[in-house]
Amino acid sequence: RVFDYIRSGGVVSSFGDAAVMEGPLGSEPSVAWIDGDGTPRTDWADASLPDPSQLSAGDAVWPADLQNQLLFRRRGSKLTDQPDRRGFVRGDFGDMRQLVVEYDAGVPGQERLRGKYGVRPVLSILIRIHQYLLARYDIDGFRVDTVKYVDPDAIEVFGNAMREFALSVGKKNFFIFGEIYDDEATIARFVGRNGGSGDGYGIDAALDFPLFYTLPAVAKGMTDVAAVQRVFAARRLHEQELLSSHGDAGRYFVSFLDNHDQHERIQHPDTPVDQVTLAATLLFALQGVPCVYYGTEQGLRGTVDAAGQADLTANESTREALWGKNPAFDVTHPMFRAIEALARLRQDEPPLVYGRMYFREVSGNGVDFGYSFGRGGIVAVSRILVDREVLIVANTGSTSFSGMVIVDRDLNPAARELRIAYSNQGTAGKVTVTVVPAARFHGDGRVSTAATAAVGVSLRASEVQILTAAG
After folding, report:
1. Which region, left, alpha or beta, applies to residue 124 given φ > 0 means left and ψ of -120 to 50 means alpha?
2. Phi and psi based region of residue 164 (left: phi greater than 0; alpha: psi -120 to 50; beta: remaining)
3. What is the pLDDT of residues 127-160, one digit of tens each?
4. What digits encode the pLDDT tens for the residues 171-219?
5. Is 175 exposed, middle or buried (0-12, 13-18, 19+ CB in 10 A)?
6. How many angstroms separate the CA atoms of 220 and 238, rounded?
7. Which residues, in sequence order, are CB contacts of 138 under 8 Å at separation 6+?
């Protein structure tokens, strides 16, 4: 916004949320800023930092290139977490001051700043900072915090600059993923070919908040299992301009069960360990790039109060230190071993990384098949790559389940054996594919009949199995 405050002899140029009144050549600019309610704040005008040699711990801003008040938003706290018409959220994030990453020094009066840093000075400084960090500390990837609070075009430029610099120093798989704490539609604006409005490709991936909102509760039998299928159905809709193949979707989402901003870990003090390992198995088996929050592999359960009950009063509930545990990094811990086994299986079975994904119908009587639904139901998923199918079946209920699950009939002829490659409860053995000549399929209020291939499964309460071809 530009306010009617023009200094004698000056020229008004607008960028960000400030009106910059450039005085005669060589003079310093005067700025009228607005707060979070859109009210002009004259007491913020012409604010300046002390000389670098006089900075105290309270005023230090580093590197010195950012010691310029014009590079900060200074409009007060954000009023909403919903992106505005420009596609992002403007305003300070709590006590964290927002940089004007989209600052435009291409307007008249900005020659000095433009000559030193280019047309986008803040973005240029941030790129150089992170290029230095990448080279100095041999970093292989970045997690970019609070992405939806930054101009999507700036995120696009930043992501491309990091990838190009990484390639120039020999890093061919540099990975950048962002925290976009929102829904599918908002995430889609920042990722891959959808990122920004230019020719770039934005960030590589985003944290999978839509799945996080669903998967832990499903694994604990607290939410309808059909909610997981709905997450991926919505994703296909919103990412249709992004995805180039059915198996491509796993590249763009970093999936997780808990993180430092949540009040509760997946391993709540009252959570049975089988529910945690069931959730971890689905994390590694569904489409996405699985991310394990530190301490989950050591069985950390979050902070507890004096009575030993879960203390979920603050984000710090999930930030307890590993080094308070003895031993801090126990490679024999059951959770460590479970995650190690899942990571190894994912490495050995390419369908779990690159495969197409299909939710499968299940049957309790071997004749009537349909997608499971309701709390405590069955999550049944196939991952297929070329001619290899991996079947994942999870019982989120508190009682055992015996029944049949559909598999691809062309890839699994009758009498073919599948082995249980992983079970969170140690179940081993093999099952045999059979043909059901007149299976009845129930869905959308209709019943159809067809021959199908299926395998029989038996799962205890909170058990998950991954089945692969025996040969």
Report:
1. alpha
2. alpha
3. 999 999 999 999 999 999 988 888 888 988 999 9
4. 998 999 999 887 887 777 776 554 445 554 578 888 999 999 999 999 9
5. middle
6. 28
7. none
